[in-house]
Amino acid sequence: MNDSSSGRTRDPSPAAEDPDLVRARAGDDAAFGRLVAPLRRELHVHCYRMLGSVHDADDALQEALLRAWRGVGRHTGRGSLRSWLYAIATRTCLDAATTRRRRALPVDLGPASDRVPPDGVARTEVAWLGPYPDIAITTGPLGPHARYEQREAVELAFVAALQHLPGNQRAALLLFDVLGYSVAEIAAMMDTSTTSVNSALARARRMVAERVPPATQQQTLREIGDDRLRRLVTAFAAAFERRDVDALVALLAEDVTWSMPPLAQWYAGLDAVADFATEVPLGSCPSWRSLPTSANGQPAVAFYLGEDRTGTHHGWSVTVLTLRGDRVAGITSFVGEDHFVRFALPVSVGGETAVGRCS
Question: What pLDDT does 145 receive?
């Protein structure tokens, strides 16, 4: 990962006499709202990294801010408000992680499928990893220990790898390598020893290194450049709209994978992915429309499915592309209209006919 610490500054430390902090301690909820408003987005991203779900991040952030509001009278102002809120948000996420199932992708559940099932069935009992809309990603100040760029640290491979870590290791890695807090600061945040933090950090780094490709998507996107990236994403979407399997295959890496949570099946390798594309999305599905978007710091396409070319097309998936060079190495189609709402995308486009079905 890139060392992004150069030129970064530590958390700004608001003065204890901040008028809104004084008012908040006296019970002024509007003043408290003004204090936390600039930090809400970055805290939400932190909760997403910890929990792997926008919905869970919503709940955790709401609970964390409620805890902060109840405890603001005990915040002396000697330390940064931002650090204090990150400590509360981290502990809230750790509490949530003990009562919720680990978020997963289809690759975590079993081997790739060797054939296309007659009818894919959603696995509703699985807690699926979800996508994060780029419109919500924000970059807060990083400390001198930060090793990851903020957008690198929300990429699908990284967030998926985090879900395999115990909560304390996940927190240590994010607070140190992503946000740049010192080991001593993290030990205070998590009410533990610096020895425990160092141990958790070392173990977390080993696990993440095994699961995350050495080249991040941010590095790949910079190498490709905006023009080539735009052409690639446009060609990918056009292959769907034309239902052109050959055009799609021409964009894919030999070892490409395709998964579609909440469906458990996933496909690995050019032949398997081509067979699936031929039989289902580009063979059985009547008509596609698309809109470009982005998720987890990666290019994405919102796909809409309709009964015919002139009728209404309803949201089917937010499909996130993982690139290697100028080829698509991973396709992750997050199926469901609920994702469209999160991404501020229309849930349907086109005319008046009923939703198409893909089987």
Answer: 84
Is residue 193 assigned to a domain?
A: no
CA dist., res. 285 & res. 193, Å (int)? 56
CATH of the domain at 251: 3.10.450.50
Computed over every residue of the chain, the mean pLDDT equals: 90
Domain tally, the chain: 1
Token reading at 140: 């807060």
Q: Rounded to whole angstroms, how far apart are CA atoms 62 and 24? A: 17
Within a domain: 320: yes
Are 249 and 322 a contacting pair, CB within 8 Å?
A: no
- 3-state SS record for 27-65: CCHHHHHHHHHHHHHHHHHHHHHHHCCHHHHHHHHHHHH
Quote the pLDDT of residue 78.
67
Residue 309: Cβ within 10 Å count: 13
Instruction: Answer whether residue 284 is part of any domain.
Output: yes
| Both tokens assigned to 349 | 């486009």
Q: Is residue 316 part of a domain?
A: yes
